């Protein structure tokens, strides 16, 4: 106030309304590397060995889905990938079975052990996909199955007394088999990958690539933004240059499955198992599952699945409607 003027009640009241300045929040300091200042060995690098021992003790889950028309060698390729009879066809299929009228979902579990590490492998087959005259929306049962596995995991996760280790049936990887026609992708292929890539990791493969010429394979790949693996599967061994190799015998010679000059099976195997298996699991959990989880809880008012705002039971998130492929 200016000199000579007494402070009025109004002025005093106004001064009381002015908020006091708040202290600024503390800004966390950036971590400083002190590697050069260590006075001796600590042992933090042993965490890798600890994690290895834990994995060897508990094992891990890996769930792989195979999708494609009948006759593309899906079962044979999966058996070749894991060098064992793990597919539905190898376990319980006979040639007299009729093609299902709708897409069916069949899962078979196995435990594979190598080097002391146990993997609980589940192979999910989808007989009937793409085998009908009218294949309209034939991917919907597959999308529904994938979302159902997310729902199962979410319900276990939000339980107050949840299990120490939640059973993981979520699909970590989907091998999508493309017919080796040499004429690029069909509308069904495009629609499937367009819609299902939002909920699962899709790896496209050109099945029975030995039926295509080198020119056809080159042209096929040039048309695609993502290059599918051109693969050949076989569970039969042949003698080649004194070595036993997996391959397919043809009138002009033996196609070696793991020979990169013959096909790209080795690249597919390395990607799925040897270099990116953990990445596939993490993307499934951190991206696809988290997207489903966020939408599910948001639609449910932030409450656990099965409990609506007024105690009503809510249904799982339905499959995304897809336009009809021509």
TrEMBL record:
<keyword id="KW-0547">Nucleotide-binding</keyword>
<feature type="domain" description="Septin-type G">
    <location>
        <begin position="58"/>
        <end position="299"/>
    </location>
</feature>
<dbReference type="InterPro" id="IPR030379">
    <property type="entry name" value="G_SEPTIN_dom"/>
</dbReference>
<dbReference type="InterPro" id="IPR016491">
    <property type="entry name" value="Septin"/>
</dbReference>
<dbReference type="Pfam" id="PF00735">
    <property type="entry name" value="Septin"/>
</dbReference>
<comment type="similarity">
    <text>Belongs to the TRAFAC class TrmE-Era-EngA-EngB-Septin-like GTPase superfamily. Septin GTPase family.</text>
</comment>
<keyword id="KW-0963">Cytoplasm</keyword>
<dbReference type="GO" id="GO:0005525">
    <property type="term" value="F:GTP binding"/>
</dbReference>
<dbReference type="InterPro" id="IPR008114">
    <property type="entry name" value="Septin3"/>
</dbReference>
<keyword id="KW-0342">GTP-binding</keyword>
<dbReference type="InterPro" id="IPR027417">
    <property type="entry name" value="P-loop_NTPase"/>
</dbReference>
<dbReference type="GO" id="GO:0005737">
    <property type="term" value="C:cytoplasm"/>
</dbReference>
<feature type="compositionally biased region" description="Basic and acidic residues">
    <location>
        <begin position="1"/>
        <end position="10"/>
    </location>
</feature>
<feature type="region of interest" description="Disordered">
    <location>
        <begin position="1"/>
        <end position="29"/>
    </location>
</feature>
<protein>
    <submittedName>
        <fullName>Neuronal-specific septin-3 isoform A</fullName>
    </submittedName>
</protein>
């Amino acid at each position: 106030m200016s000199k000579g003027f007494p402070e009025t009640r109004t002025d005093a009241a106004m001064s009381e309304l002015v908020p006091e300045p708040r202290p600024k929040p503390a800004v966390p300091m950036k971590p400083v590397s002190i590697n050069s200042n260590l006075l001796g060995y600590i042992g933090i690098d042993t965490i890798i060995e600890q994690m290895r021992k834990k994995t060897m003790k508990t094992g891990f889950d890996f769930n792989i889905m195979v999708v494609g028309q009948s006759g593309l060698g899906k079962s044979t390729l999966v058996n070749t990938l894991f060098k064992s009879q793990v597919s539905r066809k190898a376990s319980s299929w006979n040639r007299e079975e009729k093609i299902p009228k709708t897409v069916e979902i069949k899962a078979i579990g196995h435990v594979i052990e190598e080097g002391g590490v146990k993997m609980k492998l589940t192979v999910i087959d989808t007989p009937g996909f793409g085998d009908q005259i009218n294949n309209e929306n034939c991917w919907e049962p597959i999308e529904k199955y994938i979302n159902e596995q997310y729902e199962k995991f979410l319900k276990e996760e939000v339980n107050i007394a949840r299990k120490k280790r939640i059973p993981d049936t979520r699909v970590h990887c989907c091998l999508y088999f493309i017919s080796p026609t040499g004429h690029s992708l069909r509308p069904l292929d495009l629609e499937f990958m367009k819609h299902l890539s939002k909920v699962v990791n899709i790896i496209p493969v050109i099945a029975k690539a030995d039926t295509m010429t080198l020119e056809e394979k080159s042209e096929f790949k040039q048309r695609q933004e993502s290059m599918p693996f051109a693969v050949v599967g076989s569970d039969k061994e042949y003698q080649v240059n004194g070595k036993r190799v997996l391959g397919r015998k043809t009138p002009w010679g033996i196609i070696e499955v793991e020979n990169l000059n013959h096909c790209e099976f080795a690249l597919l195997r390395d990607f799925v198992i040897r270099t990116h298996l953990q990445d596939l699991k993490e993307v499934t959990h951190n991206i696809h599952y988290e997207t489903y989880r966020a939408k599910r809880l948001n639609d449910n008012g932030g409450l656990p699945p099965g409990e609506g705002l007024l105690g009503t039971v809510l249904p799982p998130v339905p499959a995304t409607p897809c336009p009809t492929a021509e």
